[in-house]
């Protein structure tokens, strides 16, 4: 905790992450989360509103209980504002002492909240649910980013996100030093085995996408070196190399690089390794020469980072 001799830093903004999380998305997400907790607007907290006078004011610290990388501080102001509106009380003031993307240690004060105690307590769980979730994703991503430093490879997320929270999950990946892949089914085509079956061949699937959606990039999934070569012949823009043992992955990367710039193949084909990737294997996989490691576990399996809201 802070002491007078060691004043806390103050940040004008809770985030320096680029691109920032869309404020309209934050409003919608907070509204849904508060309705889950309080019921239809204005809703109620039967415990807090019975035991805490609406006139009581106080201060609370948002604190990290464990080490990690923080994310989701951008939801704090909106959560307090909407809660205050529901209760008919002024929104508490917030002073941020950390930013999304910061490495934090146990006991570190991330933000100080001052205002109506009812608002602080009613908002507490929604605020912590969102920020703890995002911080867990950022922490998991940062572990991969540190392991990949200097290799030239980047860690990517996937579509394996919490329904309704994809924007927050992918924002948290950025806060942790990772890179977003496609945001959904609408912005990049990914030809997988079922698409090949439906279209009759890899080439048929790629050509169908090009005819129908000529503005999108086309990625093709490959499980073997031969499949990767077939995808190049079909005109894929980049390849997803799925569940390949490291020696096979290295062989495939070498084979693809030898084709670059020839026979209509782009000068550089972006290669993405995926499937059963762990931090322990990250540098080994990166050493094969792939451009990316995509890790579904960043968003579907990351434990939360333990955060707390402590009244002072």
From TrEMBL:
* Pathway the protein acts in: Cofactor biosynthesis; NAD(+) biosynthesis; nicotinate D-ribonucleotide from quinolinate: step 1/1
Q: What is its EC number?
A: 2.4.2.19
Q: Which N-terminal residues, if any, form the signal peptide?
A: none
Name the keywords, alphabetized.
Glycosyltransferase, Pyridine nucleotide biosynthesis, Transferase
Q: Which residues form the Quinolinate phosphoribosyl transferase C-terminal domain?
A: 137-310
User: Could you confirm whether the keyword Transferase appears in this record?
Assistant: yes
Please give the family membership noted in the entry. Belongs to the NadC/ModD family.
Biological role stated in the UniProt entry: Involved in the catabolism of quinolinic acid (QA).
PANTHER family (alphabetical): NICOTINATE-NUCLEOTIDE PYROPHOSPHORYLASE [CARBOXYLATING]
Q: What is this protein called?
A: nicotinate-nucleotide diphosphorylase (carboxylating)
């Amino acid at each position: 905790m802070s002491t007078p001799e060691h004043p806390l830093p103050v940040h004008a903004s809770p985030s320096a992450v680029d691109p920032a999380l869309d404020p309209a998305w934050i409003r919608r997400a907070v509204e849904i989360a508060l309705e889950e907790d309080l019921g239809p607007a204005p809703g109620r907290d039967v415990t807090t509103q019975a035991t805490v006078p609406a006139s009581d004011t106080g201060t609370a610290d948002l604190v990290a209980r464990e080490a990690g990388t923080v994310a989701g501080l951008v939801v704090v102001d909106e959560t307090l504002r909407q809660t205050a509106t529901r209760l008919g009380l002024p929104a508490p003031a917030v002073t941020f002492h950390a930013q999304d993307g910061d490495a934090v240690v146990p006991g570190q004060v991330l933000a100080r909240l001052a205002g109506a105690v009812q608002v602080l307590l009613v908002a507490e769980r929604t605020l912590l649910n969102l920020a703890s979730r995002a911080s867990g994703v950022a922490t998991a991503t940062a572990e991969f980013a540190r392991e990949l430093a200097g290799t030239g490879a980047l860690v990517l997320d996937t579509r394996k996100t919490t329904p309704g929270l994809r924007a927050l999950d992918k924002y948290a990946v950025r806060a942790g030093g990772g890179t977003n892949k496609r945001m959904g089914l609408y912005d990049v085509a990914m030809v997988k085995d079922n698409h090949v079956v439906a279209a009759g061949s890899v080439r048929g699937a790629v050509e169908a996408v090009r005819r129908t959606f000529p503005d999108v990039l086309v990625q093709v999934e490959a499980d073997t070196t031969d499949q990767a070569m077939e995808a190049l012949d079909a005109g894929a823009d980049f390849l997803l190399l799925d569940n390949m043992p490291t020696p096979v992955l290295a062989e495939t990367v070498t084979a693809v690089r030898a084709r670059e710039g020839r026979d209509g193949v782009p000068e550089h084909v972006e290669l993405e390794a995926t499937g059963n990737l762990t931090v322990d294997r990250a540098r080994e996989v990166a050493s094969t020469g792939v451009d990316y490691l995509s890790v579904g576990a960043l968003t579907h399996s990351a434990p939360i980072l333990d955060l707390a809201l402590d009244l002072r």
